[in-house]
Model the fold of this input.
Amino acid sequence: MKAIVARCGFRCDLCGAFVKNSSSVTDRVQVAAAWSKYYHVDIKPESIRCYGCLAAKGRGFDLPSTACAVRRCVIRRKLDTCADCADYPCTTLEKSIRGVEKVIKKFKGKIPKREFDRFIAPYDARTTLNRLRKA
Done:
């Protein structure tokens, strides 16, 4: 699958909540358990059906939220992602990715690589956006 990058730099194509990746109940149960464990969020597995912020309208589980400030800004500026913005990185993006970066720092190298790659790495927005800016 080709890389699908959310407006903020999350990797939808690697995210277990993205509808094309969460084909089974088992997948969604694993994602819900991992998000609870690493991000301390309580999401029911049946709610994990993300169409992502690239979708025209939110459907099902909406994460990243269609109400996301980063999403609104990127759309308003008629950009694909924050990587295309002259103001990158801005306070709106920094505020949005701060929590995930804390989780990355806390768990990188401290949990099995497979778990990190599956449940944390897809949300390393800064790395993704920096790669896009260099391309």
About this structure: The chain has one domain: 12-134.
